Amino acid sequence: MANNAAGNVYANTTTGKAEFNNANGSKPLATVEDVASAINGSGWELNSASVGGEVIGDTAPTRVNPGSKVNINAGKNVVITRSGKDITIATSAKPVFENVQVGGDKGPIVGGDANGDVKVSKADGSPTKVTNVAAGTASTDAVNVGQLKGTVGNINNRMNKMNKDLRGGIAGANAAAGLPQVYIPGKSMVAASAGTFKGQSAVAVGYSRASDNGKLILKLQGNANSRGDLGGSVGVGYQW
């Protein structure tokens, strides 16, 4: 095949290929090599980059040629839904994490221990406090410091009241112990006394009677203390 005056078509005896060139060196027609080169160059590059996340594995761009297949794999806690050519990537509704850090790289870390209990710590692993906790209502709810202080205060108040009641009772016992009793045979005695103990006070009144032979003695008493409580006792004795 020879080149004509216009310089269009000729056969290359070295390569055995037909070549198409104009007189000025340009190619008027696309060759098979041109088509093959265009097809091979029509692919696209697949790349992965970190935008606030983490990239694991290949980081260099990968050329995807026509006819090649690209796989999109669902990693842990990821759900992929495909409908024809539409792909939806979402986070699992029930994700499982070893731990979660909130509030930035200096925020607390929430995780679990070997026993399955919740563990909250600072970014360096040291203990941290949980704030803005609502008051618990159920028996298994956590309590906040306000509730704890209220409970402790209630216990302290009840113990303080009990302590004062006990002091009043001891004051009543002291008053009863101070009551004199009859000692002459055939005689009776009415007596009164007062007692005190650590800020509480009490009064007592009593009656006693000795038998005519002086061997049998009856005694009874009643007392009232500053706590508003009443007490009393009765006794009988025989002497010989």
Automatic annotation (TrEMBL):
Give every Trimeric autotransporter adhesin YadA-like stalk domain span.
129-160
Q: Which residues fall in a coiled-coil region?
A: none
Q: Which GO terms describe its biological process?
A: protein transport
Source organism of the structure: Rodentibacter genomosp. 2
Domain Trimeric autotransporter adhesin YadA-like C-terminal membrane anchor, first and last residues per copy: 180-240
- Official protein name in the record: Adhesin
An example Gene Ontology cellular component term from the record? cell outer membrane
Which superkingdom, per the lineage? Bacteria
